[in-house]
Amino acid sequence: MTKIGYARVSTIEQDFEIQRQRLQSEGCVIVRAEKVSGASREGRTELATIIEFLREGDELVVTRLDRLGRDTRDVLNIVHECEQRGAFVTILDPHVSTRGELGHVIVTVLGMVAQMERRFIKERQREGIARAKAAGSYKGGKARLDYALVQRLKGQGLGASAIAKVANCSRMQVYRILTASVEKNAPDVDC
């Protein structure tokens, strides 16, 4: 049986070191981490890698359920995929494991709470933007990635992995920036 930790933060500015330390102190021999939104499973390559390599009796450990996901269906699908491999999911805060039936019920309820919390966050964000626009002080969100840097590195012949390392982002984000750039610069053709 192997304990495998998964740490996740949503933005480049956030740090997952506290999660990593907690997972290691709980006995996780492997800890994978990524900086990507928990709103869906899209682009969460580290999580996919963990699930792919889970074996019978292994345990996927996260510090909080919202690190696993903020959508109830996604969380339940992740738990199901782990169980299909004979593995368990353990959440440290509050301590819940899918080893028993009660754990499944608690994970489902916590998943619903995480999804509801995400909706509240989005609603407060929309209200704040509307107030700022009404006051004439809304300037839009700041760019989280340096698109020009990604383009410049690509122009220098670097591959997506190398660009991601320099720009401190995921390869998926590099691909999105490069794809958007190609689509933006494509000539309009009338048929």
Automatic annotation (TrEMBL):
Outline the extent of the Resolvase/invertase-type recombinase catalytic domain. 2-136
Pfam families the record matches: HTH_7, Resolvase
The record's annotation in SMART domains points to:
Resolvase
Which keywords are on file for this protein? DNA integration, DNA recombination, DNA-binding
Q: Show the PROSITE patterns listed in the entry.
A: RECOMBINASES_1, RECOMBINASES_2, RECOMBINASES_3
Q: Where is the active site?
A: S10 (o-(5'-phospho-dna)-serine intermediate)
What InterPro entries does the record point to? Answer: Recombinase_CS, Resolv_N, Resolvase-like_N_sf, Resolvase_HTH_dom, SSR_resolvase
Protein family according to the UniProt entry: Belongs to the site-specific recombinase resolvase family.
- Would you tell me the protein name for this molecule? Resolvase
Question: From which source organism is this entry?
Answer: Rhizobium hidalgonense
